[in-house]
Prior knowledge:
Layout (H helix, E strand, L loop, with lengths): L5 E5 L6 H15 L3 E7 L12 E6 L17 H36 L3 E4 L7 H10 L4 E4 L11 H14 L4 E4 L2 H10 L8 E3 L14 H12 L7 E5 L8 H11 L6 E5 L8 H10 L6 E4 L5 H10 L2 E4 L8 H8 L4 E4 L4 H4 L6 E4 L4 H12 L2 H16 L4 H16 L10
Parallel strand pairs: 1-2, 1-4, 2-3, 4-5, 5-6, 6-7, 8-9, 8-11, 9-10, 11-12, 12-13
Helix pairs in contact: 1-14, 2-3, 6-9, 7-12, 10-13
Amino acid sequence: MGNKFRLIFVEPNGSGGLIHYAYQMCTALADQGVDVTLVTGKEYELSDLPHNFRVNNMLDLWPLFVQKTAQDPNASFGKRLSEKIIWNLRRVQRAFRLIRAWMRLVSYLTQARPDMILFSKINFPFEILFLRQLRRRGLKLSQIGHEFELRESKSSLAKLFARAYADAYNQFSIVFFHAQENRERFHALFPEVSMDKTFVIPHGNSGWLLRKSLGEKGIESLRQKYGLSDHVPVILFFGLLAPSKGIDDLIDAFAIARRTCDAKLVIAGYPTKHIDMDDLRARIAVSNLARDVILDPRYIPLDEVGPLMGLATVVVYPYRSSTQSGALQVAYTFGRPVIASKIGGLPEAVDDGQSGLLTPAQSPTVLAEKILEIITDPARAARMGEYARQLSETRFSWESVAKQMVEIYTRFLSSEKGPDSAN
């Protein structure tokens, strides 16, 4: 059969980290000779980039990142009730749009009949019904196991939904993970899913962002926007803002570190519905850090990501729970040392003491010590950043990722029994 086959990658989100990931994976697979089509949402934000694969932005969904308005704590009961009704009606309307999109997707995939379909994250339990339809029609399905736990919700209903996902994973012939730790955790949660259909591949870098960077001009523009002086060390958090990201712990750690250093903390990223920005601001105020912490709670434009990294002395990922981090790969791409929690697949991505430092999760005191280690030793920070860049270009290169995936797919498609062995 060779290494050429037809693959359709389904990533419904037309903006954000997952579509950035999908774009790079599709590019790399196409470079390996795979006939690739990316199916995504109508709001596809990367249309201006070069493509060596087809894009079908047929999924009529909704934008993920919209400017949020702060709730008025003094609003009347009637206004609050009205806003809640509108919010619930919007959820119902979105549910219908998602179901309609899935129906169109099933029809399209059935007609296209690729050799393999690759799905990104499965977001809702009812999507299992459509996966079953595809499987019954003889289509072969695979998935990237970005997330398989509901990190931001602890309700009993969320736990029930989590169990329902086991049936979804049984619809896939192949599931990829980005760390051995994640693969083992997955099988602890879903022992009914065969281990020999799961494989570990590296998480690719974010090299495509180098094309979007505004360079020194962009760095200076952001420096002025944030009110930063030229030589002050900058500690950066970059990514979606959510409780599982440990931002509270980072603020507490910065309050400790700030006692013995002159530094600034920049927290930049889009706030999810699970995080209370007012609580975050209150925490900053109580710690007397209002002048030293810059909050930039928005979806960072692609051409500002490089300058943002350019400002940073160190990029911190103080996660409380995680599988892996695409944002960490952004730091590596731009040659920045990192500090990350010892959870999930992060220890497999960080060479402790070389590309960055590892720290226990939810340990602000230890995190403060690690921050001081890096920002008080510029030469060491520079060495770590250079090593991180080398990792980005070697271990986490998309060429390496794509070659491994093509080998796994080729073995599967050449065998009536599927993959003959696990990693």
